[in-house]
Every structure is written in structure tokens, then in C-alpha cells.
Amino acid sequence: MHPDMMREVARQRDAERRDAARNASIARAARKAIRAQRARAEAPDNFVAPAIPDYVDSTFHVAGEQVPVQRAGAGR
């Protein structure tokens, strides 16, 4: 066989092997994503949101029962 033809056949086989490896990698990634999605769908949702206070020290938690303080501002 002529050396140029052998080189071309080798290049073509190499390209085919690379394509097959790339397709296998894409297929593995797709299967992994499908398994992860299925696992998330089957997993129970155990998240419970914590109670969030109005303020950190709860100073205005009962603001309706307290009298507001007169503030001395610079404009008065």
C-alpha cells in the first residue's frame, strides 16, 4: 500500500475512534444526569424553613402595645 494512503487510512481510523470516545463520554454524562434527576425527584423534601424574627433583639415585636418615643431631631 502506498504510504500516503496508509497515512490517510490511519488518520481516518483515528478520527473515528475519537468520535466514538466523544459520543461515549456524552452518553455517560447524559445517563449520570438522568440518574441524578431521578434521585432528586424520589428524595423526600425534608427542608423546614426556620422561623425568622422581626428584629434580632425582637425590640419591635410588640410595637402596637408600646408608645413611640419622641425623637429630638436636628430640624426641630
Question: What secondary-structure arrangement, pairings included, does this model have?
Answer:
Blueprint: H1 3-42
List unreliable stretches of 5+ residues: none
Q: How much helical structure, as a percent, in the residues?
A: 40-55%
The biggest beta sheet reads: none
Shape assignment: elongated
End-to-end C-alpha gap = 103 Å
Mean pLDDT: 80
Structure in words:
The protein is 53% helix and 0% strand. It has one helix at 3-42. It is mainly alpha-helical and 76 residues long. The chain has 1 helix and no strands. The mean pLDDT is 80.
Structural descriptors:
76 residues, mainly alpha, elongated
What would you say about this model in short?
The protein is mostly helical and 76 residues long.
